[in-house]
Amino acid sequence: MKDLMTQEKHHVRMLNPAEPKRGGRGRHLVKMINPAMRANLLKTGGAVEADKMFRNFRGKEAKAVTLVEARRGTPSYVAELGGLVELMLHDSDDYREPRARMKKVSALKFRVKEDEDGDKALKFNPARIKLVSDGNGDLHIVGFYKPLPEGLERGRSHFLGCVMCVVYEADKPHIETGEQHYEHFFCEYGGDFPRLFYKDGYLFFRGGTYSITKNGIEGQRHAHDEGGVVYGWLYVTALDYMGS
Which residues contact 178 (CB under 8 A, 6 or more apart)? Predict the structure, then answer.
C-alpha cells in the first residue's frame, strides 16, 4: 500500500456501505470497499477477506472504500461492522486496580454511563467512530483519536478495563429492515473478555473469545462456516500489540 502517512499519521481502508469521503484530520487510515474500485482492490492482499467479512456480516455488498483514521498496526483493509455506540467495561475483575483504571478514563474525558451494578459504559459518536473487523475476524476501532492527556505516559499501553458488552449501529437487511442498535455480551458461554487499551491517542482490543458471523458478534459456542469462510474462536494477536 502506498505510504499516505507521516510518522504520526496512519490510515487504513474500510469497506463500508456509504460513498467515499475525503478530508479530515487523518493520522492512520484504513480503506473500506466500493463497486467502482472493487475489481482492482480485490486483487490486493487483505481486501478479499475484508470484502467477504463485510458481505457476510452486513448481508449486502460494500459500496465504498473510505480512508479512516486507525491505530498503526491495524490491517490495511477492514470491514465496517457498524458505528460504535457503547463499550461497557466489567468492573469486577480484580487483577487490575479499578480506581487507577477509572482515573485514566476520566483523564481521557470519555462520556461515561454507570449502571446499577457499577459497570461503566463508554459512549461514542457512531457517525464518526466505527467498530470494524479485519479479514481474520479480529475487532478494531477506527475513527477514534484523543490526544495523550497529562498524567499518561507516552508509548505505553494503558489498560482501561475488560469489555463486557459492545453496542453498535448498523443496517443488516438479512436480519431486519432499517438501521438498528445491536448489542453483544461477551463470555455468555465462557471464554475471555476482550481487554480495552489506550495508547498514544488510540483505543484497541487485546484478546477475547468471539466469532464474527452473519448473525452478528457471537460468543464461544462452535465454529461457524459462513459463506465459505470459517470463523471460530478468535483471538487478537497482532504483533504490533506485543510488548507494548
Answer: 171
- What is the tens place of the pLDDT at every residue in 168-216? 999 999 998 888 999 999 988 888 999 999 999 999 999 999 999 999 9
- Best CA proximity match to 75, nearest among 140, 146, 9, 153: 140
Amino acid at 118: G
| Selection from 79, 81, 17, 58 nearest residue 214 by Cα | 58
- pTM assigned to the model: 0.76
What amino acid occupies position 178? G
* Length of the chain (residues): 244
Residue 84 CB neighbour total at 10 angstroms: 25
| Residue 3: Cβ within 10 Å count | 7
Classify burial at 45, counting beta carbons within 10 Å of its beta carbon; exposed 0-12, middle 13-18, buried 19 or more: exposed
State the maximum Cα–Cα separation within the chain, in Å, rounded to a whole number: 51
